[in-house]
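Colleagues,

For the teaching module next term, I've prepared a clean inverse folding example: a structure given as tokens, and then the sequence designed for it. I'd like students to try predicting residues themselves before seeing the answer, so please don't circulate the second half yet.
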């Protein structure tokens, strides 16, 4: 991937700057339950304010499908951003049109305006050229800081970049630099930890990491499909019948390339995915027929910690167990703690992985916690993301 122009090298002095941010945060009513993505956008916003720019923010929230959905208005986000910036954040009932134009005109130098949810317009997801042009007409330059939405070719992430001088924001740049370096020029040993649910969701990620990493450590329901490929009886454990062949060839590919490729040796099994279910630890060769694997076991944790002890680069995607249930979150938490001790670069990406990390209070011990869910997976696959590709090269 080519280096993209940075917001630092963009002439934004006293300009109107349209900044695409990813403020798609989890909400409980109008309460924001995790403001990580809002905090992550603050450095770019401040850098532009300091240059006397008019900062015009555009984001989506949820999936309103091209209609106005009251619950998905951005007002709670504007309020939280105002607290973080310690300055007022202007809002506007629409994204484009006369009201938006007026809101921009009224914005003082260094002022911040948050436009309404861009997905209230169907043209956004259609990447409609006329809509992209209307968005562009609000500003002199465009900055994309929405790494979390960079895998979408929408009007505000892709189309608009064709109409204005453009650059990557500081968050976007950090995501690309840290993850790009880990994939292309990693300090070694480079360990990849892959867990989560479906092999089929992550074939691309597995393929890419198997080629680039020295050691691959598998966990989660994902590992069950690999155990099945070894013809193990795993009782009622979740696995993907259709992905067994792929799993077999990935194991062969990794071993042929001389990589360390590890599957769990032992597991916590339970009678059901339920907080009250009875559970105990067994070797993976002895999963009782009526039980299911819900977490990696203590021997596996010890072995994986050993593999991490001299690592210089670690990329982790996908929890080691059913982290939604406290009793089955041990493996994920202990691996996260081991990651905190690694003397090197540690990177965690993926919606559920990051949520588990935050919940365990361990995010601060990781070098880079990606703000992308789907976007970081596509990045780890080695794909070009349209929201990045559309930006001007450095
Ligand atoms: P990410 O969002 O980080 O990419 P995934 O979406 O692939 O991760 O996987 C997370 C999901 O995998 C969680 O809902 C978790 O409960 C589930 N999971 C992990 N291990 C198991 C298991 N052994 N059995 C069933 N589900 C599991
Ligand atoms: C995300 O949360 O992964 C991004 O904000 C993208 O949202 P989307 O999957 O609705 O496009
Ligand atoms: Mg997920």
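(Answer key — instructors only)
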């Amino acid at each position: 991937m080519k280096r993209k122009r940075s917001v630092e090298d963009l002439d934004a002095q006293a300009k109107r700057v349209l900044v695409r941010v990813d403020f798609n945060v989890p909400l409980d009513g109008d309460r924001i339950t995790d403001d990580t993505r809002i905090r992550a956008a603050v450095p770019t916003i401040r850098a532009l304010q300091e240059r006397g720019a008019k900062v015009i923010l555009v984001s989506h929230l949820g999936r309103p499908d091209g209609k106005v959905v009251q619950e998905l208005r951005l007002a709670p986000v504007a309020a939280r951003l105002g607290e973080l910036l310690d300055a007022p954040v202007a809002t506007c009932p629409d994204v484009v049109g006369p009201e938006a134009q007026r809101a921009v005109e009224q914005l003082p130098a260094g002022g911040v305006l948050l436009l309404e949810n861009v997905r209230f317009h169907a043209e956004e997801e259609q990447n409609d050229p006329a809509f992209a042009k209307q968005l562009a007409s609000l500003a002199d330059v465009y900055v994309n800081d929405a790494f979390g939405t960079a895998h979408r070719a929408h009007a505000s992430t892709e189309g608009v970049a064709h109409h204005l001088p453009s650059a990557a924001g500081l968050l976007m740049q950090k995501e690309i630099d840290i993850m790009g370096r880990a994939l292309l020029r990693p300090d070694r040993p480079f360990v990849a930890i892959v867990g989560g649910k479906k092999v089929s969701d992550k074939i691309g990620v597995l393929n890419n990491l198997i080629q680039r990493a020295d050691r691959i450590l598998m966990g989660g329901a994902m590992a069950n499909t690999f155990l099945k490929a070894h013809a193990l009886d795993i009782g009622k454990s979740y696995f993907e019948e259709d992905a067994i062949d792929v799993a077999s060839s990935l194991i062969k590919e990794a071993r042929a390339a001389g990589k360390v490729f590890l599957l769990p040796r032992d597991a916590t099994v339970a009678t059901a995915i339920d907080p009250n279910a009875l559970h105990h630890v067994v070797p993976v060769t002895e999963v009782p027929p009526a039980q299911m694997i819900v977490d990696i076991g203590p021997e596996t944790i010890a072995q994986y910690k050993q593999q991490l002890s001299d690592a210089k680069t670690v990329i982790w995607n996908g929890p080691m167990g059913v982290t939604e249930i406290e009793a089955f979150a041990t493996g994920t938490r202990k691996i996260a703690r081991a990651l905190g001790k690694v003397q090197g670069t540690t990177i965690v990406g993926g919606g559920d992985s990051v949520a588990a990390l935050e919940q365990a209070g361990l995010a601060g011990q990781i070098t880079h916690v990606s703000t992308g869910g789907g976007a970081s997976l596509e990045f780890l696959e080695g794909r070009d993301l349209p929201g990045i590709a559309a930006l001007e090269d450095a």
